[in-house]
Each structure stands twice: as C-alpha cells, then as structure tokens.
Design a protein that fits this description.
Number of strands: 17
CATH class of the largest domain: Alpha Beta
Bound molecules: zinc ion
Largest sheet: 8 strands, mixed
Strand content: 15-25%
Order of helices and strands: EEEEEEHHEHEEEHEHEHEHEHHHHHEEE
Radius of gyration: 20 Å
CATH superfamily of the largest domain: Metal-dependent hydrolases
CATH architecture of the largest domain: Alpha-Beta Barrel
Shape: globular
C-alpha cells in the first residue's frame, strides 16, 4: 500500500518547514519527500494536504494510561477492579491516538495493566499509541504515588525493585525523588528516594540500556536524582541555578507537564479535587512557571509531557501542552519540536520517530491550518484532521 501526502506544508521536525512538499509512504515507512514537481504513480493513494500542515506523529513523554483523569485518579484506581482499569485504559489509549499522539511514555501503571495494554495495541487487538511502559513506579515506603507504586527502601531494595520492573517488561524505570501533589500528606518539596537509592536503581536500568525518569519537584530531590545519573526530570518545580547548569551540561531533559497543574488550578475544588491537592498546587504553581522560563532561557532541553490521567487532564487533550509550553517562553517552533524530535530523544527512539525523514516510521499527523502562525489552535482537540500510525490511517 502506497500513500502520498501531496503538495503542502510539512513540519519536518528538525527546525525546517517545507512548502508545496509531497511525502511518500510505503510499507509503514516514510519513503521520500519531493517538491512540487513530485511524480506520483497511479497505484498511490493520494491525500492532498491543502491548507493543513503535516507533522511527525506527536509524542507525549509523560502519561498514565491507567488513570482516569477524575478528581482523585489514584484513589479511583485502588478502589476499582483491574478489569475496570483495563477497560478505561483501552478507551484512554484510543482517545490519545485520535488526538495525534502516536507514541507515549507511560510513567506509572498498576498491576501490569499498562504492560498488557501495550501488548494489546501491538497485536492490533485495540487501537492506541505505541506505549513505552514503566510498570510500577518506584517510591520509598509511604512516598509519593505509593498506592500504585513499588515501595522500596535502601539501595538494595531499590535495585531489586528496578530489576523487577525490567523483568516485567518495563521500557524505562520511574523513580520518585520527592513528594508530590496527588498523594495526601506528602510535601512536594521534600526529598524522598535518596542519592544512593536512585543510583542503585538507575545503574540497573542503564545496564540493560533502558532510560530512567524521576518525579522530582523539590530542589534537594532533583539534585540527588541528577547526581545519581537520571535521564529526565519530571515536573521540576523548584529549579536552582546549580540544577539548571547541571541539566544543560549533562543534557538531562526537563518534562514540565504544565497541563497537570493547569487543570487543577482551573477546576479547584469545584470539580471534586481534594482540597489538600488544590492547596498544594496553588503553592507550587508560581515557582513552576518561573522555573520553566528560567530553564528554557538557559538552554535546558524541554520535552512535551502532559501527565494525562491526573485530575481533569483528559486523555485526548494532550496537544494543549504545546501552546502551554509556548506560553512559558518557548517559540511555536520550539514547542512543536518539544513534542516531536526532542521527545523522540527522551524516549530513545530518535532513529525511528520524531521527524519526517525517509526510513522513519510513517507516523504522520495532519493539523488544520498553520500552528507555527497560530499555536493556540492546538488547545482545540479538533485541530487534528488525520492520524497515520506506522503507515495505517487510524483517524481521518
Ligand atoms: Zn505522572
């Protein structure tokens, strides 16, 4: 099956925009790109780009497929059967793909549901994005996320916990370096897993060539994770100058997940979010905004991640993180690259996805109009008009 997206605007992902370009797809891969003089064979299915822009499939580097985006998502997981979690997860996966997100990194599942959903999508049983799963997040006893996490204390236990997730099929390993918003009684700024603990766990992941990520809000926890060799800092609320220069020098990615706090701030307790979670969000949000702007100015590599599944942070609204990034100092081009080529590096798939280049997987998304001129169009979930994953059109 041959397809050609013809005569239109193409966001390559490397910082360039092509006009009047045609992109050829065959056997699930991008075969080539031509100018307006493209020669198209008769057996090729042609899709005129018209006024739309063609993007590489978007990549969300931080979601929770098992969380339902209700007011207390962790509470609802532990209060429902795994069958219900799976059914909701399948629906979340379908919505995510329809939104133009063709690859996701899941940073905390429950009872292996994330791993099974990944398999179901790969086998074609259900529709969804390519999932890079973490299995269970690793936290200290009583630490942030503990109701769905693997509690581990001391370097030996954290090492064992990391090996368990890798054995279960995790694509990367997630650690909790500090407290957070969505677990009652833990302070977002307080350190949790320590340097020695994370060093042991990270070592296990790196031994088998897997990446690591950490939930990290407070400065002390962020610095401990960085020294221990972490590959990405999730949230990053309290960034100091020392943290920022370490991240630039060692090319550690920042995944701010602006959408997570945005929805909690916007809904407040009216939507049923527990007051303790809203209160914590309001305290950290101004620090977060300042940190993102400062990190961006200093040259920290920032990637798109939504934390979809957290309160009112609905699966399928993922792309609104892109205009949110732009509202925090990234240019439209930078924000769109954060969701494509930069994100592909975060997930370690930069040779397969993230740009429109011959030889890469044919994950392609048509967005109405020109988001480089009007980035706010991505607040609207209807902005995506066509989604192709691995050469198959999954939404048109
Ligand atoms: Zn998360």
């Amino acid at each position: 099956m041959k397809t050609a997206f013809t005569d239109g605007r193409v966001f390559v992902g490397d910082g360039t925009i092509l006009e009047r370009a045609t992109v050829f797809v065959e056997d699930g891969k991008i075969m080539g790109i031509s100018g307006s003089d493209a020669v198209i064979s008769e057996d090729t299915h042609q899709i005129p780009l018209g006024d739309a822009t063609l993007f590489p499939g978007f990549i969300d580097t931080h979601i929770h497929i098992v969380m339902d985006a209700g007011p207390d998502p962790i509470g609802s997981i532990v209060g429902q059967s795994d069958v219900m979690t799976t059914l909701k997860g399948a629906q979340n996966a379908e919505k995510t793909l329809a939104a133009g997100v063709t690859t996701v990194r899941d940073l905390g599942g429950h009872h292996g549901v994330d791993l099974e959903l990944k398999k179901a999508i790969e086998s074609g049983l259900i529709k969804g994005p390519r999932i890079l799963a973490s299995a269970r997040l690793i936290c200290m006893t009583g630490g942030h996320g503990w109701p769905i996490g693997r509690e581990a204390d001391g370097p030996d236990q954290v090492r064992l916990a990391a090996r368990e997730q890798i054995k279960a099929g995790a694509d990367q390993v997630k650690f909790m370096a500090t407290g957070g918003v969505l677990t009652p009684g833990v302070d977002p700024g307080s350190p949790q897993l320590g340097y020695e603990e994370m060093k042991a766990g990270i070592e296990e992941a790196h031994k088998v060539g897997k990446k690591t990520a950490t939930h990290a809000m407070g400065s002390q926890g962020i610095m401990a994770a960085l020294r221990a060799g972490i590959d990405s800092i999730e949230h990053g609320i309290y960034l100091t100058d020392e943290i920022i220069s370490f991240m630039v020098e060692n090319k550690v990615f920042l995944i701010p997940t602006i959408a997570a706090l945005h929805h909690i701030e916007e809904m407040g307790t009216t939507g049923g979010i527990p007051a303790w979670a809203v209160d914590k969000s309001l305290v950290v949000a101004p620090h977060h905004r300042a940190s993102i702007k400062k990190a961006h100015k200093a040259g920290v590599a920032i990637a798109m991640g939504t934390d979809a599944g957290t309160p009112f942070n609905l699966h399928g609204l993922n792309l609104m993180e892109i205009p949110l990034l732009a509202a925090h100092g990234l240019s439209p081009m930078e924000a769109l690259m954060a969701a494509t080529s930069v994100a592909s590096q975060v997930v370690g798939m930069e040779n397969q996805i993230g740009t429109i280049e011959p030889g890469k997987l044919a994950d392609l998304v048509m967005v109405k109009g020109n988001p480089m001129e009007n980035i706010d169009i991505l607040y609207n979930a209807d902005a995506v008009s066509l989604v192709m994953k691995g050469g198959k059109i999954v939404k048109a």
